[in-house]
Specification:
Structural class: mainly alpha
Distance between the termini: 117 Å
Oligomer: single chain
Strand content: under 5%
Shape: rod-shaped
Helix content: over 70%
Radius of gyration: 44 Å
Order of helices and strands: HH
Number of strands: 0
Largest sheet: none
């Protein structure tokens, strides 16, 4: 039994040393990996910030474009209203000429569309 107890004791000692070596190796790798992890995390944060800034710029540009389009739409609406008023005034002032222009336009359209048959 003495040989078995000695082998068991040697095995326990070797196991303890191996465990300690593994723990030291793990600690060493973790210490070396931490700066890399910090660097990756910093770059990830910077990337998120850059994407956020670009999104804000695009949003601002779209907002400005929308405002410009709305202003142009109001201008176009006002121009159409003025053109309609001008047309009504012209018909009130010159009904005979307006009627002749309408007849001529109708005749021209009928010839244009009638030639498609």
């Amino acid at each position: 039994m003495n040989a078995i107890e000695k082998a068991s004791s040697d095995l326990n000692g070797n196991t303890q040393e191996t465990r300690q070596d593994l723990h030291r190796t793990i600690d060493k790798v973790a210490d070396q990996a931490q700066p890399l992890i910090d660097k990756v995390a910093t770059r990830a944060h910077e990337g998120v910030d850059q994407v956020g800034e670009r999104i804000e710029k695009v949003s601002d540009s779209m907002s400005k474009a929308s405002e410009r389009l709305m202003a142009r739409g109001k201008q176009l609406g006002a121009a159409c209203q003025r053109a309609g008023e001008t047309g009504r005034d012209y018909v009130r002032e010159r009904p005979a000429v307006s009627l002749l222009v309408a007849v001529a336009a109708g005749y021209g359209l009928s010839k244009l569309l009638g030639s498609r048959k």
